[in-house]
Amino acid sequence: MNRTTWIVIGVICLLGLGGLVAFTKQGETNVDNIDAATVLQSSNGSIGDRTTGKSGAKVIVFEYADYQCPGCGAAYPTIKSIQETYKDKVTFVFRNFPLTSIHPNALAAASVAEAAGQQGKFWEMHDLLFTQRSAWVNLTADQRGSVFLSYAQQLGLDTAKFTSDQSSKLVSEKINLDRALGGKMGVSSTPSFFIGSTKVDSTTTDEVINSKPDAFMSKLDDALRAAGETPPAR
After folding, report:
1. Which of 171, 180, 194, 199 has its CA 20 to 30 A from that of 186?
2. Taken in order 51, 17, 81, 215, is the CA torsion positive or negative?
């Protein structure tokens, strides 16, 4: 797709934030005392951040995304490639930011990924949701359930636990926390990326969506050098 098309998609995703704000107020997830630019660990039974790459890296990338968002789907292979290049240098964090007012399957997809994560298969389900996006994105609530269940079976999950965890308080609280953290960091569209606490500009994000990773990787290289690290060869 060309830049104009993605601008239109971005505006549509932005409009969905009205419903998101209302949801967050209802959920009352308080993140006043949480540093949103740090990796959150599991504690007291809560679900911590979903991370990949180097554990404890000096440079952290935060992605706020909606599995049903077209831009997030388009950005996925580019981000996957960037993660592979920087896996020994950078910690990558995925946080859920489903825009429920315009994407009726987004919250269910986020719940599916987090439920799989309860069995150690978050990233495998995350990848399936994006690579198989066309298979579920336009389904009804009744139809999507069987598709998501087939993904769980494909990953060898305990399907009874998987089904139960999707609607659990633990998973719901994790998604609400991710959304609240996004709000605190000023997320206004998906996908949104941060290198530490610094938001990646919209032009660079558009390039990621359009399969052009160079500007994003240059920012990562700069962040690594500033942290005293040597960027990977590429």
Report:
1. 171
2. negative
CA distance 101 to 17: 8
Residue 52 and residue 92 in contact, taking contact as beta carbons nearer than 8 Å: yes
pLDDT in tens, the chain (234 residues): 454 444 445 444 544 444 444 344 435 689 999 999 999 999 888 999 999 999 999 999 999 999 999 999 999 999 999 999 999 999 999 999 999 999 999 999 999 999 999 999 999 999 999 999 999 999 999 999 999 999 999 999 999 999 999 999 999 999 999 999 999 999 989 999 999 999 999 999 999 999 999 999 999 999 999 999 999 998
Torsion, Cα of 226, 48, 87, 227 (10° steps): 10
Sequence-ordered strand ranges (E) for the chain: 50-53, 59-65, 90-96, 192-195, 198-199
Total-model pTM: 0.89
SS (H, E, C) 57-72: CCEEEEEEECCCCHHH
